Amino acid sequence: MLVSADEIECHFRREYGRCVATLVRFFGDIDIAEEAVQEAFTIAVDRWPATGLPPNPGAWITVTAKNRAIDQLRREASREDRHAQAALMYARDAQDENRDARDEDEGQVGPVQDDRLRLIFTCCHPALARTAQVALTLRLLGGLQTPEIARAFLVPEATMAQRIVRAKRKIKAAAIPYRVPGDAELPDRLQAVLSVVYLIFNEGYVASDGGALVRDDLCAEAIRLARVLAELMPDEPEVLGLLALLLLTQSRRAARIGPDGSLVLLPDQDRSLWDHALIAEGQDLVRACLRRNMPGQYQIQAAINAVHSDASDAARTDWGQILRLYDQLLACSPTQVVALNRAVALAEVDGPRAGLAAVDKLDLTGYHPYHAARADLLVRLGRPGAAVPEYEAALAATSNAAERRFLEQRKLTAARQAG
Amino acid sequence: MTQYLLAVHHDDQPPLSPEDMQQSFKDVEALNSEIQAAGAWVFAGGLHPPSTATVVRVTDGAVVTIDGPFAETKEQLGGFWIIQAADLDAALDWAAKATVACRLPVEVRPFQEG
Lengths: 419, 114
Hints:
Number of helices of chain A: 19
Structural class of chain B: alpha+beta
Oligomer: heterodimer
Shape of chain A: elongated
């Protein structure tokens, strides 16, 4: 056997987004595109083990899928299927347009808009609910199957399937466009795309529910999407900032979970477990962003992480610089959650009393990091008795088993200190 | 081209002052001309209040006529545009102008084709 089934699946997974995106442009229909790629996969499983990999698997998949879809649509169109006739007509127009575009482009080299970029803007269109944006992005760009997405977000498969079907139906019925927005809309629309990728990563990194602390598949997928975006939009500093933030966060993945599966906080992490290749890549990106001097929330968060990554041990952390970065972050995204993180940095610079005073100005009841931070500061101020109910409030607000184990431990220690 | 309904929803916000109301009428008129000039116009109209509505339905095989809007909710359809646009983004651009002109939320819904 020249190619194993696993290898074939791997190629499809890698090429899926690109192939589906190209076919969506060609047929103007997501379902046709997805079915065609699936069909090509079946053919590949049948042939590749005997023939070996084609020289360019991605191109093979796209061409095979396109031809299969056209054959299928022709059969349906000849039976007076109006939907198939419309898709064929669309495909003919797309081909003509391509030819025209090529004629126009001849002699001048301009940036070629990648189909994946168009598709991710369609998936993250503001007319779709955030949950649908996330599901569609994972499915169409990430090549994840519906059951995988359902598992990742801990919703029943039927619910996720319905969510995806509905979103696709809306894209078609309401004619949500398949293009990269113009300059005027781009900043807002890009923000939605970045939030979706960040949310996918975060859902993997701080799995909000269930036993495992992280779900690596989601983190890996988010990083892959961020890499695609960075490759396609290299002039958008926030895109680079997001990629840097994800890489630097991911670099601490191995140190963040103790042998017993519980959470290990930054100061207590074994820094030799950090992934230094990811750190170097993330820090390079942060430096590239700094040179552009167009700060935004992802770039600043990445810079904060880069400062942490610089410290060979927790005691050497440059908290002064981190605090200045949080001031910047607070100026560009003035939320209570950012203010909470700033207060934690302030406690490192000016002591726990100043930190607690800043935390007490916030109202984040029910947000578990708020209660945990407050509890931690109270312990440091020698008031473990007051910390216990805060740990309890934090426990009541999280369902992640690893975080709960961690908080239970802290609570026990505080209760013991309080006597 | 897709046709879209831009439905204007009256919510339970306090009514506009007479001056604001006059200005809103003028803004809507100006928008109507703009939609027509752009070739996006299909039809539009404002509706009398829900208290003028009558509902007709079949109950036990017989057609029954009753007073009142179909649903007694705070939000009621107050008027609408039907426009044609290349895609949802173009329709949303008109909807953005519509909600500014009429000072009320606007719901955008595509018509079924054919």
